[in-house]
Design a protein that fits this description.
single chain; 145 residues; alpha+beta; five-stranded antiparallel beta sheet; 3 helices
């Protein structure tokens, strides 16, 4: 299976250990994507929020000047995308978006997951990746499933 897919991640999947856990199905399968190949990217017009009572974020369409920072991963297979769809669940929808990598002025067409559940489930604050990093340093990723 060729790795023709790409995806913009802005939350827990910016961490290689989380991507590895999801794509390897908890370590049971070999993965094909290079975990260190993610490139810093920005998605304009979307805003990231902390999901209430959860350890993960969501993005929703925002104002023109809103932006969400994250990582663009290329080389994903169709099977990888199906695993990501399963991981994200029915609160999210995968859509086509354009992101800007590094300082490039030319956007790259990719996909990301946007929040489609109730906005009442979002806190009025940004998700903190440093807080999540400390969580996974002190707790097994398996316990977060």
């Amino acid at each position: 299976m060729s790795g023709d897919f790409s995806c913009f991640f802005y939350g827990t999947l910016i961490f290689p250990e989380v991507i590895k856990h999801v794509l390897s199905v908890g370590g049971r399968e070999k993965i094909s994507v290079d975990l260190n190949s993610g490139a810093p990217a920005v998605l304009e017009g979307y805003k990231r929020f902390q999901v209430r009572g959860a350890w993960y974020p969501a993005i929703v369409k925002g104002h023109e000047n809103d932006e969400t920072k994250g990582v663009l991963f290329k080389g994903l297979t169709y099977n990888d995308v199906l695993k990501l769809d399963n991981f994200e669940g029915d609160q999210y929808k995968r859509i086509d978006v354009k992101v800007f990598v590094d300082d490039s002025l030319n956007p790259i067409l990719t996909q990301t997951y946007i929040w489609i559940a109730s906005a009442d489930l979002l806190e009025n604050k940004d998700w903190d990746p440093n807080k999540f990093k400390k969580l996974i340093e002190n707790q097994s990723i398996d316990t977060l499933d």
